[in-house]
Design brief:
Chain lengths: 400, 400
């Protein structure tokens, strides 16, 4: 049977395959990007769900508008404005099935075969997969602790006048945990405003912030309406409901709405109403503060364990938010090889290579610290430290 | 801003625009394809939803596998086998966001720019929109009351060796309400088995059957594993949850799974568990029998009203299932024009032209009989009859 050409580029997500291996109980897994299910507000959600079904049961189970449930769109606009200093209304918001669908639809909206897209280096692997469906090509721009290198970005934009989209995750990026500085955001927007290119700002982690400093969305400096912001309830609430959103100018959003309609008509009406009711009945900020405390504590435990158990010259990020740490092994190492050894000793992570769309680096890996409990965090990192230490000694003696 | 080329072909669904007009209370609308919300099993669903949240709350709110909730996939496979004489297992089932997402993903999987796809004439407008996103071209094959014309299909297949996909709705098709005969199904599969082309069998209405005769899925005769069957809970249960499925051979399904993953990771975990629990706790067959009685009654009322109020030479289908009737006006008429007059008199339907991918016919329209109550059905059809009658007299006198 003949498939579309795009299928030649599609391969199973490495994370997904690793997750299958790590489903065995004895494995301590830092591989997935799962929130801690112990922290889900199950009882509050149950209360909200009951309200919805009792108050408007048949309406909540019927077909609905493509744009999404109006009260929820309003709640999202208000939250975004108060948290990230944007100035949007409900009419600028489209509800989708988690931010992943927003990525897929962004590819659909902007990318023709062979088109160029700029992303950070490394960047979110799920975005690479979504965009790749549209047979695009990637240019990775050097990304430092402060954010995307603007000299490299400018050089790239000048060298390739046919760039069609820029994809960034300025807040506690998946996979590195990095946050762009305020200064870098401003200067990025100054530079970008000279180009008629859409900027996809993916922000699933921005509210999970450990140092109490929430930075504004790029939209704050968006004079030309070129920023498209993606958000989701997956990390601040519950991912299993698959509810996220796109916020963009009317002109752009209307086209996303057309695509949403042909993609699946609309996102679950009931899930939207349940989340909206939860936001009405409960204070999600109280819940988010609980998440922050828990994840900050886990980040601290993870970092202390790394300090204690990893060889001193192994580099790692110190994220001020989100769910991930990024670890860089010595240049010549392969984190895939290391994973094979680790899995045999029942500890797992995601190797870094698939986060580089052009496979630039093989010696880094992503460590999720939100899902495992404290004991497992310590035990798993200590095990990994042991394995890395053995590698380290071996490679040292080879060098000598 | 530059958008992908596919956006040039995307226009807002005519149904959606009409639905906006018909939201006003005074309008009697036969335009949407909405099930009757009075028939939704709200209380039973509430019971199931509570069970799920109490038994496995945090699991139901967590990320899940792309393929879908295993018990639900098993329940779907069993139902399909017992109802439509297929022989599938849970491993042949992928859960998606309603059958609409399955259509979008089918386009993504099989269609490159310019590719040819064969469909019925007329065919489901939401499928046309979904496939069009992938910049394909359509060939409509003549479709009669018994099903697709096999001589025309054979001729078409011979003339175009580059056809990449065939899309059919053999059961109570949207928009015509037609059902393919058993004989036509068999002969269609005989013919198709000589070609290495995937057949998308879309079946949202097959269980809403008024004469107690459920016909087998095309899969029954699928020697070469080329049939991909799409199903949904939207018409037999509740559409607002957005839960449907794709059933296909392993080779094909694995590719759909890759696409599902990059599209939105997975369908709402909670919705899947809720439907699964409903199927476990309650007998959906009892519910479906209730739907059938109600919709059959509405079909009868609609048909009697048409007989009574429409000029005798207006043709209409007499569907033995589903939610739609199809009405053919005299050749020279435009159903869009008729709609404008009808909307002024507060009654609405969907004109037929957008159901023809190449705009072949302008004189038919679709009438939904499932959503309006009995009084509105009579009143609305009587109003339409009056308007059509006036047109009819006018065109008669012109002819003379």
């Amino acid at each position: 049977m003949k498939y579309a050409n795009r299928m030649n580029q599609m391969t199973a997500s490495e994370i997904r395959e690793i997750l299958k291996v790590t489903e065995q109980k004895q494995v301590i897994s830092f591989a997935g990007g799962l929130p801690d299910p112990e922290l889900f507000p199950v009882n509050e959600f149950l209360t909200a769900a009951n309200y919805v079904l009792k108050e408007s049961g048949s309406q909540g189970l019927q077909y609905s508008t493509t744009e999404g449930f109006e009260p929820l769109r309003m709640q999202i606009a208000n939250r975004m404005n108060s948290k990230f200093q944007s100035q949007i209304t409900k009419d600028d918001v489209l509800i989708v099935n988690g931010a992943q669908q927003a990525l897929d639809m962004s590819g659909k909206l902007f990318l023709d075969k062979g088109d160029l897209i700029v992303c950070e280096s490394p960047t979110y692997l799920g975005a690479i997969n979504a965009f790749r469906t549209y047979e695009c090509r990637f240019i990775s721009v050097l990304t430092e602790d402060e954010g995307m290198s603007l000299s490299h970005l400018e050089e790239t934009l000048k060298a390739h006048p046919d760039i069609r989209m820029i994809y960034v995750i300025p807040d506690f990026q998946n996979p590195t945990g990095r946050r762009w500085s305020l200064e870098r955001r401003k200067r990025f927007m100054d530079l970008i405003s000279c180009y008629d290119i859409p900027v996809i700002e993916d922000n699933p982690y921005g509210e999970i912030v450990f140092d109490n400093q929430i930075f504004p969305s790029l939209k704050k400096w968006d004079k030309n309406n070129q920023v498209i912001s993606l958000g989701t309830f997956s990390k601040i609430f519950c991912p299993g409901l698959r509810v996220g959103w796109i916020s963009a100018s009317q002109e752009i959003l209307n086209r996303y709405i057309l695509l949403k309609q042909s993609s699946d008509l609309h996102t679950s009406n009931l899930s939207q109403r349940q989340i909206s009711k939860y936001l009405e009945l409960f204070d999600i900020e109280v819940h988010i503060r609980k998440l922050i405390l828990a994840y900050r504590n886990k980040r601290d435990i993870a970092v202390s364990a790394i300090k204690k158990c990893f060889p001193a010259d192994i580099k790692y990020t110190m994220p001020e938010g989100g769910l991930f740490l990024w670890i860089e092994l010595p240049e010549s190492w392969s984190s895939r090889e290391l994973l094979e050894v680790c899995i045999k000793e029942n500890v797992a992570f995601v190797p870094g290579e698939p986060f580089y769309p052009n496979g630039e680096k093989k010696n880094a890996f992503r460590l999720n610290f939100s899902n495992a409990d404290e004991e497992k965090l310590k035990e798993g990192i200590s095990k990994m430290g042991g394995i890395i230490g053995r590698y380290h000694s071996a490679s040292m003696s080879e060098t000598i």
